[in-house]
């Protein structure tokens, strides 16, 4: 579990429950936006399981061949039932298979995958004989699988069989308390023999309030880029990508007062509520979005009975 970094409540809870989940044989369905570390979690679950001495078999469902997909997954046998080609699922005997982007698994093979999940059985092309393998299944998706089921793109029975244990990898927006920790870790990692990139309070504030749509993967790539371009330098705003800089109105006013005036208390209340929504209820992140301390935010929340 050492490769999963974080001290936020979401990550702490995840790390606390992972050993119990890893020790079981239950199927696990990992949800999460792109870049949140779903494959990293799958690797951790496999490594901590009784199967950890064997290689994790990863199958990217979005990259499966359109032709010959059954033979690729299950294999091929002759009419006597003798295996001529061992597919990836049979070859994973005694190990774990990780179906990445499982929502892209073609409907044409979902019934066979379901049967394999339920009994470890599969019927190879060219033979009516059933073959059995001892394999644990993990899967991951960034899609809403229930919506895919409703749309007829994914089998409901396979969906429920996959998500015996559902786990959601939180977005970086939800774990904003971990951003500083991750910045320091990856900056040191990519510095190599060079001095580590330095972040001023102004720069760190920009990075803490940035939305990170690519999540941890985007942050990691950012740290690698900064280490290559600015080794040992104290970063300034000009070094950051434009999208990471705070947006300022053309007239240099963050807010333009309308001629009719405003209700200042209502504006303050609206902004606090918006910040809490954007921060998914995380008060520390909401305070950073508003440019105030957490204590000040708590005081104003109490003032408005929030």
Question: Could you explain how this protein is built, in words?
Answer:
The protein is α/β, with parallel strands linked by helices and 306 residues long. It contains 13 helices and nine strands. Strands 2-5-8-1-9 form a five-stranded parallel sheet, with helices on one face. A hairpin with a 5-residue loop joins strand 3 and strand 4. The radius of gyration is 25 Å and the shape is elongated. Helix 11 crosses helix 12 (283-290) and helix 12 packs across helix 13 (294-303). The longest helix has 15 residues, at 9-23. The protein has three domains: 9-168, P-loop containing nucleotide triphosphate hydrolases (Rossmann fold); 176-247, Helicase, Ruva Protein, domain 3, CATH 1.10.8.60; 260-306, Arc Repressor Mutant, subunit A (Orthogonal Bundle).
Features:
3 domains; Helicase, Ruva Protein, domain 3; 306 residues; elongated; Arc Repressor Mutant, subunit A; Rossmann fold; two-stranded antiparallel ribbon; alpha/beta; five-stranded parallel sheet
The gist of it:
By secondary structure, the chain is an alpha/beta fold.
Radius of gyration: 25 Å
Which runs of at least 5 residues are low in confidence (pLDDT < 50)?
none
Strand/helix succession: HEHEHEEHEHEEEHHEHHHHHH
Main beta sheet, described? Answer: 5 strands, parallel
Task: Tell me the structural class.
Answer: alpha/beta
* Tally of alpha and pi helices: 13
CATH class of the largest domain: Alpha Beta
User: Strand share of the residues?
Assistant: 5-15%
Number of domains: 3
- CATH-derived architecture of the largest domain: 3-Layer(aba) Sandwich
How do the strands of the widest beta sheet line up side by side? 2-5-8-1-9
């Amino acid at each position: 579990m050492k490769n999963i970094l974080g001290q936020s409540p979401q990550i702490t809870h995840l790390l606390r429950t992972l050993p119990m989940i890893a020790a079981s044989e239950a199927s696990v369905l990992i949800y999460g936006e792109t870049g949140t570390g779903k494959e990293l979690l799958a690797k951790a679950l496999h490594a901590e399981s009784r199967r950890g001495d064997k290689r994790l078999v990863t199958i990217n469902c979005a990259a499966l061949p359109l032709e010959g997909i059954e033979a690729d997954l299950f294999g091929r046998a002759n009419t006597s039932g003798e295996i001529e080609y061992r597919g990836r699922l049979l070859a994973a005997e005694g190990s774990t298979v990780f179906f990445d982007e499982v929502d892209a698994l073609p409907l044409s093979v979902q019934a066979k995958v379901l049967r394999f999940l339920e009994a470890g059985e599969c019927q190879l092309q060219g033979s009516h004989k059933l073959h059995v393998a001892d394999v644990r299944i993990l899967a991951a998706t960034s899609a809403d699988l229930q919506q895919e089921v409703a749309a007829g793109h994914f089998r409901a029975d396979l969906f429920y069989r996959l998500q015996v244990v559902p786990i959601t990898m939180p977005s970086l927006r939800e774990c904003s308390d971990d951003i500083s920790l991750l910045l320091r870790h990856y900056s040191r990692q990519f510095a190599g023999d060079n001095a580590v990139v330095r972040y001023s309070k102004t720069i760190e504030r920009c990075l803490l309030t940035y939305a990170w749509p690519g999540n941890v993967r985007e942050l990691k790539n950012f740290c690698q880029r900064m280490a290559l371009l600015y080794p040992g330098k104290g970063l300034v705003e000009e070094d950051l990508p434009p999208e990471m800089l705070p947006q300022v109105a053309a007239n240099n006013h963050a807010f333009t007062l309308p001629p009719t005036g405003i209700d200042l208390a209502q504006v303050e209340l609206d902004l606090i509520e918006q910040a809490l929504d954007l921060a998914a209820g995380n008060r520390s992140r909401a305070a950073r979005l508003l440019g105030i301390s957490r204590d000040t935010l708590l005081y104003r929340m109490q003032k408005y009975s929030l």
